[in-house]
Specification:
The protein has about 375 residues and is α+β, with helices and mostly antiparallel strands. The protein is about 45% helix and about 10% strand. The structure holds iron/sulfur cluster (2 copies).
Protein backbone atom coordinates (compact mmCIF):
# COMPACT_ATOMS: atom_id res chain seq x y z
CA UNK A 1 0.00 0.00 0.00
CA UNK A 2 1.47 3.42 -0.91
CA UNK A 3 2.24 5.88 1.89
CA UNK A 4 -0.62 8.25 1.16
CA UNK A 5 -3.22 5.51 1.16
CA UNK A 6 -1.76 4.08 4.36
CA UNK A 7 -1.87 7.52 6.03
CA UNK A 8 -5.52 7.92 5.03
CA UNK A 9 -6.31 4.52 6.49
CA UNK A 10 -4.48 5.30 9.73
CA UNK A 11 -6.27 8.65 10.01
CA UNK A 12 -9.63 6.99 9.61
CA UNK A 13 -8.83 4.37 12.23
CA UNK A 14 -7.76 7.11 14.65
CA UNK A 15 -11.15 8.81 14.27
CA UNK A 16 -10.05 11.82 12.23
CA UNK A 17 -12.77 13.29 10.08
CA UNK A 18 -10.59 14.47 7.23
CA UNK A 19 -7.04 14.24 5.98
CA UNK A 20 -5.47 16.02 3.02
CA UNK A 21 -2.04 16.77 1.62
CA UNK A 22 -0.62 20.12 0.64
CA UNK A 23 2.60 21.45 -0.85
CA UNK A 24 4.90 23.68 1.18
CA UNK A 25 5.03 26.71 -1.10
CA UNK A 26 4.73 30.02 0.83
CA UNK A 27 1.29 31.34 1.74
CA UNK A 28 1.80 34.60 -0.13
CA UNK A 29 -1.80 35.81 0.10
CA UNK A 30 -1.79 35.46 3.89
CA UNK A 31 1.64 37.07 4.08
CA UNK A 32 0.35 40.13 2.21
CA UNK A 33 -2.80 40.38 4.34
CA UNK A 34 -0.98 40.02 7.67
CA UNK A 35 1.69 42.54 6.64
CA UNK A 36 -0.91 45.06 5.48
CA UNK A 37 -3.02 44.70 8.62
CA UNK A 38 0.03 45.12 10.79
CA UNK A 39 1.13 48.22 8.89
CA UNK A 40 -2.36 49.72 9.12
CA UNK A 41 -2.49 49.05 12.86
CA UNK A 42 -5.40 46.59 12.60
CA UNK A 43 -3.45 43.90 14.43
CA UNK A 44 -0.77 44.13 17.06
CA UNK A 45 2.77 42.88 16.66
CA UNK A 46 2.05 39.98 19.02
CA UNK A 47 -1.12 38.99 17.12
CA UNK A 48 0.76 39.10 13.82
CA UNK A 49 3.61 37.00 15.21
CA UNK A 50 6.57 36.24 13.01
CA UNK A 51 4.82 36.67 9.66
CA UNK A 52 7.66 35.25 7.62
CA UNK A 53 7.79 32.11 9.77
CA UNK A 54 4.01 31.65 9.79
CA UNK A 55 3.67 31.92 6.03
CA UNK A 56 6.77 29.98 4.95
CA UNK A 57 6.48 26.36 6.12
CA UNK A 58 10.04 25.58 5.04
CA UNK A 59 11.24 28.09 7.65
CA UNK A 60 9.41 26.13 10.34
CA UNK A 61 11.04 22.89 9.26
CA UNK A 62 14.08 23.25 6.99
CA UNK A 63 13.93 20.76 4.16
CA UNK A 64 10.12 20.42 4.45
CA UNK A 65 8.44 18.95 1.39
CA UNK A 66 4.82 18.35 2.36
CA UNK A 67 2.09 19.25 4.81
CA UNK A 68 -0.36 16.63 6.07
CA UNK A 69 -3.52 18.46 7.18
CA UNK A 70 -6.10 16.81 9.40
CA UNK A 71 -9.45 17.78 10.85
CA UNK A 72 -11.52 16.26 13.63
CA UNK A 73 -15.19 17.08 13.96
CA UNK A 74 -16.19 17.94 17.53
CA UNK A 75 -19.89 18.38 16.99
CA UNK A 76 -21.44 15.54 18.93
CA UNK A 77 -24.91 14.41 17.93
CA UNK A 78 -27.64 16.58 19.54
CA UNK A 79 -29.14 13.69 21.52
CA UNK A 80 -25.98 13.46 23.66
CA UNK A 81 -26.24 15.76 26.72
CA UNK A 82 -23.80 18.64 26.30
CA UNK A 83 -22.85 21.70 28.31
CA UNK A 84 -24.24 24.48 26.15
CA UNK A 85 -22.62 27.17 28.29
CA UNK A 86 -19.36 26.26 26.57
CA UNK A 87 -18.36 26.76 22.95
CA UNK A 88 -18.73 23.45 21.19
CA UNK A 89 -15.00 22.77 20.92
CA UNK A 90 -14.78 22.93 24.72
CA UNK A 91 -17.66 20.49 25.18
CA UNK A 92 -15.27 17.62 24.51
CA UNK A 93 -11.99 16.79 26.23
CA UNK A 94 -8.89 18.72 25.25
CA UNK A 95 -8.42 18.42 21.51
CA UNK A 96 -4.81 19.56 21.66
CA UNK A 97 -3.73 16.32 23.35
CA UNK A 98 -5.92 14.07 21.21
CA UNK A 99 -4.91 15.66 17.94
CA UNK A 100 -1.24 15.86 18.84
CA UNK A 101 -1.00 12.17 19.69
CA UNK A 102 -2.85 11.25 16.50
CA UNK A 103 -0.50 13.34 14.38
CA UNK A 104 2.38 11.67 16.18
CA UNK A 105 0.99 8.33 15.02
CA UNK A 106 1.01 9.59 11.43
CA UNK A 107 4.58 10.87 11.88
CA UNK A 108 5.65 7.45 13.19
CA UNK A 109 4.08 5.81 10.19
CA UNK A 110 5.98 8.06 7.79
CA UNK A 111 9.17 7.38 9.69
CA UNK A 112 8.66 3.63 9.52
CA UNK A 113 8.83 4.00 5.72
CA UNK A 114 11.39 6.82 5.61
CA UNK A 115 13.59 6.66 8.70
CA UNK A 116 15.42 9.87 7.77
CA UNK A 117 12.19 11.94 7.63
CA UNK A 118 11.81 14.84 10.06
CA UNK A 119 8.55 16.33 11.31
CA UNK A 120 6.93 19.31 12.93
CA UNK A 121 3.52 18.89 14.53
CA UNK A 122 1.29 21.95 14.63
CA UNK A 123 -1.87 21.99 16.75
CA UNK A 124 -3.42 25.40 17.31
CA UNK A 125 -0.51 27.14 19.02
CA UNK A 126 2.23 26.48 16.46
CA UNK A 127 3.27 29.03 13.84
CA UNK A 128 1.69 27.36 10.78
CA UNK A 129 -1.51 28.91 9.39
CA UNK A 130 -3.54 25.73 9.72
CA UNK A 131 -6.71 26.97 8.02
CA UNK A 132 -4.84 28.20 4.96
CA UNK A 133 -2.95 24.91 4.77
CA UNK A 134 -6.17 22.90 5.18
CA UNK A 135 -7.84 24.88 2.41
CA UNK A 136 -4.87 24.23 0.16
CA UNK A 137 -5.13 20.53 0.99
CA UNK A 138 -8.76 20.58 -0.15
CA UNK A 139 -10.40 20.06 3.26
CA UNK A 140 -12.81 22.95 2.77
CA UNK A 141 -13.01 26.69 2.17
CA UNK A 142 -12.41 29.51 4.62
CA UNK A 143 -15.75 31.26 4.99
CA UNK A 144 -16.65 34.86 5.69
CA UNK A 145 -16.71 33.89 9.37
CA UNK A 146 -13.02 32.87 9.11
CA UNK A 147 -13.83 29.21 9.88
CA UNK A 148 -12.82 26.36 7.63
CA UNK A 149 -16.02 24.96 6.16
CA UNK A 150 -16.38 21.53 4.67
CA UNK A 151 -19.57 21.80 2.60
CA UNK A 152 -20.63 18.32 3.71
CA UNK A 153 -19.66 18.54 7.37
CA UNK A 154 -19.84 22.20 8.34
CA UNK A 155 -17.24 24.05 10.38
CA UNK A 156 -17.29 22.47 13.83
CA UNK A 157 -13.92 20.86 13.64
CA UNK A 158 -10.45 21.36 14.94
CA UNK A 159 -7.42 21.32 12.73
CA UNK A 160 -3.88 20.12 13.02
CA UNK A 161 -0.98 19.70 10.63
CA UNK A 162 2.18 17.74 10.23
CA UNK A 163 4.97 19.35 8.26
CA UNK A 164 7.32 16.69 6.99
CA UNK A 165 10.50 16.37 4.95
CA UNK A 166 8.94 13.31 3.30
CA UNK A 167 7.82 14.01 -0.25
CA UNK A 168 4.09 13.19 -0.45
CA UNK A 169 2.19 14.19 -3.59
CA UNK A 170 -0.24 17.01 -2.74
CA UNK A 171 -3.98 16.60 -3.21
CA UNK A 172 -5.35 18.64 -6.01
CA UNK A 173 -7.49 21.44 -4.60
CA UNK A 174 -9.79 22.34 -7.43
CA UNK A 175 -12.81 23.36 -5.37
CA UNK A 176 -11.94 25.75 -2.64
CA UNK A 177 -10.92 29.36 -2.34
CA UNK A 178 -11.62 32.01 0.29
CA UNK A 179 -15.35 32.52 0.73
CA UNK A 180 -16.02 30.43 -2.36
CA UNK A 181 -19.02 28.65 -0.82
CA UNK A 182 -20.58 31.71 0.85
CA UNK A 183 -22.19 33.34 -2.15
CA UNK A 184 -24.56 36.16 -1.12
CA UNK A 185 -24.92 34.89 2.44
CA UNK A 186 -23.76 37.20 5.22
CA UNK A 187 -25.53 35.55 8.18
CA UNK A 188 -22.36 35.33 10.25
CA UNK A 189 -21.51 39.01 9.85
CA UNK A 190 -25.02 39.95 10.98
CA UNK A 191 -24.95 37.52 13.92
CA UNK A 192 -21.68 38.73 15.42
CA UNK A 193 -22.77 40.78 18.44
CA UNK A 194 -19.61 42.83 18.87
CA UNK A 195 -18.78 43.71 15.26
CA UNK A 196 -15.68 41.55 15.51
CA UNK A 197 -16.33 40.31 11.97
CA UNK A 198 -15.79 43.72 10.48
CA UNK A 199 -15.66 42.50 6.87
CA UNK A 200 -15.96 39.12 5.14
CA UNK A 201 -13.07 36.99 6.36
CA UNK A 202 -11.67 39.72 8.62
CA UNK A 203 -11.92 39.29 12.38
CA UNK A 204 -10.85 41.92 14.90
CA UNK A 205 -9.57 39.55 17.54
CA UNK A 206 -9.74 42.04 20.40
CA UNK A 207 -13.51 42.36 19.85
CA UNK A 208 -14.15 38.64 19.46
CA UNK A 209 -15.88 36.97 22.41
CA UNK A 210 -14.08 33.75 21.73
CA UNK A 211 -10.78 35.51 22.43
CA UNK A 212 -12.17 37.79 25.13
CA UNK A 213 -13.53 34.95 27.28
CA UNK A 214 -10.21 33.09 27.06
CA UNK A 215 -7.78 35.92 27.70
CA UNK A 216 -6.49 36.55 31.18
CA UNK A 217 -7.14 39.70 33.17
CA UNK A 218 -9.87 42.30 32.92
CA UNK A 219 -12.67 42.17 30.40
CA UNK A 220 -13.59 45.57 29.00
CA UNK A 221 -17.01 46.56 30.37
CA UNK A 222 -18.26 47.17 26.80
CA UNK A 223 -18.21 43.41 26.14
CA UNK A 224 -19.48 42.00 29.43
CA UNK A 225 -23.17 41.96 28.59
CA UNK A 226 -22.55 40.31 25.20
CA UNK A 227 -21.21 37.26 27.00
CA UNK A 228 -24.78 36.61 28.14
CA UNK A 229 -24.82 33.36 30.12
CA UNK A 230 -22.05 31.66 28.17
CA UNK A 231 -19.16 30.54 30.32
CA UNK A 232 -16.64 30.06 27.57
CA UNK A 233 -16.17 31.03 23.94
CA UNK A 234 -18.67 32.01 21.29
CA UNK A 235 -20.15 30.01 18.43
CA UNK A 236 -22.62 32.56 17.13
CA UNK A 237 -20.99 33.12 13.74
CA UNK A 238 -20.84 29.35 13.25
CA UNK A 239 -24.24 28.41 14.61
CA UNK A 240 -26.02 30.62 12.03
CA UNK A 241 -24.01 29.23 9.14
CA UNK A 242 -26.26 27.25 6.79
CA UNK A 243 -23.52 24.67 6.35
CA UNK A 244 -23.81 23.80 10.04
CA UNK A 245 -27.61 23.74 10.07
CA UNK A 246 -27.58 20.64 7.92
CA UNK A 247 -25.06 18.78 10.09
CA UNK A 248 -26.52 16.81 12.95
CA UNK A 249 -23.26 15.60 14.43
CA UNK A 250 -20.20 13.81 13.25
CA UNK A 251 -19.36 10.16 13.53
CA UNK A 252 -17.04 8.42 13.72
CA UNK A 253 -15.30 10.82 16.02
CA UNK A 254 -12.08 10.94 17.98
CA UNK A 255 -14.19 11.55 21.01
CA UNK A 256 -16.15 8.89 22.78
CA UNK A 257 -19.29 10.67 24.03
CA UNK A 258 -19.66 8.49 27.12
CA UNK A 259 -16.11 9.34 28.20
CA UNK A 260 -15.21 12.64 26.62
CA UNK A 261 -18.15 15.00 27.17
CA UNK A 262 -17.24 17.95 29.38
CA UNK A 263 -20.01 18.90 31.80
CA UNK A 264 -19.19 21.70 34.22
CA UNK A 265 -21.02 22.03 37.53
CA UNK A 266 -23.28 24.92 38.52
CA UNK A 267 -21.77 28.40 38.83
CA UNK A 268 -21.85 28.21 42.62
CA UNK A 269 -19.50 25.23 42.58
CA UNK A 270 -17.19 26.82 40.00
CA UNK A 271 -16.82 29.91 42.18
CA UNK A 272 -15.89 27.77 45.17
CA UNK A 273 -13.09 25.85 43.47
CA UNK A 274 -9.63 26.21 44.95
CA UNK A 275 -6.57 25.35 42.85
CA UNK A 276 -6.78 21.61 43.49
CA UNK A 277 -10.55 21.44 42.98
CA UNK A 278 -10.07 23.23 39.65
CA UNK A 279 -7.31 20.88 38.57
CA UNK A 280 -9.31 17.80 39.44
CA UNK A 281 -12.38 18.97 37.56
CA UNK A 282 -10.76 20.62 34.57
CA UNK A 283 -7.50 18.82 33.87
CA UNK A 284 -8.68 17.07 30.71
CA UNK A 285 -10.51 20.01 29.19
CA UNK A 286 -9.39 22.54 26.60
CA UNK A 287 -10.10 25.27 29.18
CA UNK A 288 -7.63 24.03 31.77
CA UNK A 289 -4.50 25.76 30.51
CA UNK A 290 -6.13 29.19 30.90
CA UNK A 291 -6.42 28.74 34.65
CA UNK A 292 -9.03 28.96 37.36
CA UNK A 293 -9.28 32.75 37.52
CA UNK A 294 -10.37 33.11 33.89
CA UNK A 295 -13.24 30.67 34.32
CA UNK A 296 -14.33 32.13 37.65
CA UNK A 297 -14.19 35.65 36.21
CA UNK A 298 -16.47 34.52 33.36
CA UNK A 299 -18.77 32.83 35.89
CA UNK A 300 -19.21 36.18 37.62
CA UNK A 301 -20.14 37.82 34.34
CA UNK A 302 -22.77 35.12 33.83
CA UNK A 303 -24.21 35.92 37.26
CA UNK A 304 -24.22 39.62 36.41
CA UNK A 305 -26.04 38.98 33.16
CA UNK A 306 -28.70 36.70 34.61
CA UNK A 307 -29.81 39.36 37.11
CA UNK A 308 -31.26 36.92 39.58
CA UNK A 309 -31.55 38.41 43.11
CA UNK A 310 -30.87 34.97 44.56
CA UNK A 311 -27.29 35.26 43.22
CA UNK A 312 -26.60 38.43 45.26
CA UNK A 313 -25.06 36.69 48.28
CA UNK A 314 -22.70 34.63 46.10
CA UNK A 315 -21.40 37.71 44.32
CA UNK A 316 -21.00 39.61 47.59
CA UNK A 317 -18.87 36.76 48.95
CA UNK A 318 -16.49 37.14 45.99
CA UNK A 319 -15.89 40.81 46.85
CA UNK A 320 -13.42 39.65 49.48
CA UNK A 321 -11.52 37.27 47.19
CA UNK A 322 -7.73 37.67 47.25
CA UNK A 323 -7.56 38.30 43.46
CA UNK A 324 -8.35 41.86 42.30
CA UNK A 325 -9.71 40.69 38.94
CA UNK A 326 -12.26 38.51 40.76
CA UNK A 327 -13.25 41.27 43.19
CA UNK A 328 -13.61 43.75 40.31
CA UNK A 329 -15.82 41.50 38.18
CA UNK A 330 -17.86 40.54 41.26
CA UNK A 331 -18.47 44.26 41.81
CA UNK A 332 -19.64 44.69 38.23
CA UNK A 333 -21.93 41.66 38.54
CA UNK A 334 -23.43 42.99 41.75
CA UNK A 335 -24.00 46.32 40.04
CA UNK A 336 -26.32 44.51 37.60
CA UNK A 337 -28.22 42.68 40.31
CA UNK A 338 -31.54 43.75 41.84
CA UNK A 339 -30.78 42.32 45.31
CA UNK A 340 -31.91 44.97 47.87
CA UNK A 341 -28.57 44.81 49.74
CA UNK A 342 -26.32 45.08 46.69
CA UNK A 343 -25.44 48.76 47.20
CA UNK A 344 -24.86 48.28 50.93
CA UNK A 345 -22.40 45.42 50.30
CA UNK A 346 -20.53 47.43 47.69
CA UNK A 347 -20.26 50.49 49.93
CA UNK A 348 -18.94 48.34 52.79
CA UNK A 349 -16.04 46.91 50.75
CA UNK A 350 -15.27 50.24 49.09
CA UNK A 351 -14.11 51.52 52.48
CA UNK A 352 -11.13 49.20 52.65
CA UNK A 353 -10.51 48.22 48.99
CA UNK A 354 -6.88 49.01 48.17
CA UNK A 355 -6.77 48.17 44.44
CA UNK A 356 -7.38 51.17 42.18
CA UNK A 357 -9.13 49.25 39.39
CA UNK A 358 -11.38 47.40 41.83
CA UNK A 359 -12.33 50.68 43.52
CA UNK A 360 -13.27 52.03 40.11
CA UNK A 361 -15.39 48.96 39.40
CA UNK A 362 -17.15 49.34 42.76
CA UNK A 363 -17.89 53.01 42.06
CA UNK A 364 -19.25 52.18 38.60
CA UNK A 365 -21.39 49.39 40.06
CA UNK A 366 -22.83 51.80 42.64
CA UNK A 367 -23.59 54.33 39.90
CA UNK A 368 -25.30 51.63 37.89
CA UNK A 369 -27.47 50.65 40.87
CA UNK A 370 -28.38 54.27 41.56
CA UNK A 371 -29.42 54.67 37.93
CA UNK A 372 -31.59 51.58 38.21
CA UNK A 373 -33.16 53.06 41.34
CA UNK A 374 -33.90 56.32 39.59
CA UNK A 375 -35.48 54.48 36.69
CA UNK A 376 -37.58 52.53 39.14
FE1 LIG B 1 -18.29 37.43 16.58
FE2 LIG B 1 -18.59 35.42 18.34
FE3 LIG B 1 -17.78 34.93 15.85
FE4 LIG B 1 -16.14 36.19 17.57
S1 LIG B 1 -16.87 34.06 17.71
S2 LIG B 1 -16.49 36.71 15.43
S3 LIG B 1 -17.66 37.43 18.71
S4 LIG B 1 -19.79 35.77 16.48
FE1 LIG C 1 -20.37 31.98 4.60
FE2 LIG C 1 -22.94 32.41 5.32
FE3 LIG C 1 -21.49 30.58 6.61
FE4 LIG C 1 -20.95 33.20 6.91
S1 LIG C 1 -22.84 32.14 7.54
S2 LIG C 1 -19.46 31.56 6.60
S3 LIG C 1 -21.37 33.96 4.86
S4 LIG C 1 -22.07 30.53 4.42
Amino acid sequence: MDLKTKLRQEAQEAGLTRIGFAGIQPFTREEEILTRRLQEGQITLSAAGDILLRTHPEKILPGAKSIVCVGACYRLPDEIPQDNRLARYAQVTDYHKVLFSTLQRLADLIQSRMPEAKHWINVDTGPLLERAAAQRAGLGFVGKNCSLIDPERGSYWVLGALITTAPIPPDENIHFDYGSGCGDCSACLKACPTGALEAPGVVRVERCLSYITQKRGWIDSVYRRYIREDLWGCDRCQSVCPYNAAVKGCAPSMWNPSRDCVMLPEIEVILEWDASGYRKAMENTALFWRGRTVLQRNALLVLGNRKNPEDGVKMAAMLSDSRPVIRGHAAWALGQNPHPDAARWLKAVKEYESDRQVRLEIQRALTSLEREDLNG
